Amino acid sequence: MKEIYVLRHAKSSWDNSNLSDFERPLADRGIRDAKKMSKFLKDMDLKIDKVLCSNALRAKETFDLTADCFNFEIDKATYTDKLYFGDTTNIIKDLKELDESLKNILIVGHNPTLHYLVELLTNKTIDRFTTCNLATISHDGEWVSLNSQQCRLKSLIKPKELRNWKRLKSKY
Predict the structure, then answer these.
(1) Which residues are CB-neighbours of 92 under 8 A, at least 6 positions away?
(2) What's the CA dihedral at 83, 87, 91, 97 to 10 degrees?
(3) HSE of 90 in the Cβ direction (CA atoms, 13 Å)?
(4) What is the pLDDT of residues 58-99, one digit of tens each?
(5) What is the DSSP string of the chain?
(6) 152 with 23: CB under 8 angstroms?
(7) Is residue 27 pLDDT above 90, yes or no?
(8) 3: left (phi over 0), alpha (psi -120 to 50) or beta
(9) Strand pairing category for 151-157 and 134-139
(10) What whole-number distance in Å separates Cα of residue 157 and Cα of residue 162?
(11) In the sheet that 151-157 helps form, which strands lie side by side, from edge to edge?
(12) What confidence tens digit (pLDDT) does each residue in 135-155 have?
């Protein structure tokens, strides 16, 4: 069994209108949400084999704040423009080309692409994939054969739900 963790970047700041969209950092709320998500996931002892992260600053900062909970060294992540400019087709193509020894993958990026990716892989409609949401998708099969018939949505965690994190953690 393989798992794909899909993490949308946390809330970004719009305070500096001189910055490009690519350069926008996290807002204070985004930092709090990413730290909250990391604290929630820390006890789960997740082991990530590969990280694919957007090159945009807010995605990098989100991963930096959550890397510990995924037991992954920040400098070993693969940072790519594909997750900023790309689409679901490119992401699925990259997933299908992964080495079979890799079992757990984290993707950190942006909407609407990540929202569509979760729905496409799981054949599930999700209402909203808001900032700092984390979807966990299980995949039964080889990466090369990745398709919606072999994937299921295991969980969708939202920062707002983490207020009741003890109760929520028992679900996972």
Answers:
(1) 117, 120, 121, 146
(2) -120
(3) 14
(4) 999 999 999 999 988 889 999 999 898 879 999 999 999 999
(5) -EEEEEEEPPPBP-S-TTS-GGG--B-HHHHHHHHHHHHHHHTT----SEEEEESSHHHHHHHHHHGGGGT--GGGSEEETHHHH--HHHHHHHHHTS-TT--EEEEEE-TTHHHHHHHHHHT---S---TT-EEEEEE-S-GGG--GGGEEEEEEE-GGGGGGHHHHHHH-
(6) no
(7) yes
(8) beta
(9) antiparallel
(10) 8
(11) 78-80, 50-54, 104-109, 2-8, 134-139, 151-157
(12) 999 999 999 999 888 899 999
Tell me the C-alpha to C-alpha distance, in Å, between residue 81 and each of 39, 61, 99, 113: 28, 15, 21, 13
Which tokens belong to 104?
Answer: 């757990």
Nearest to 64 by CA among 25, 56, 24, 73: 73
Find tokens 């690519």 and name the residue: 22
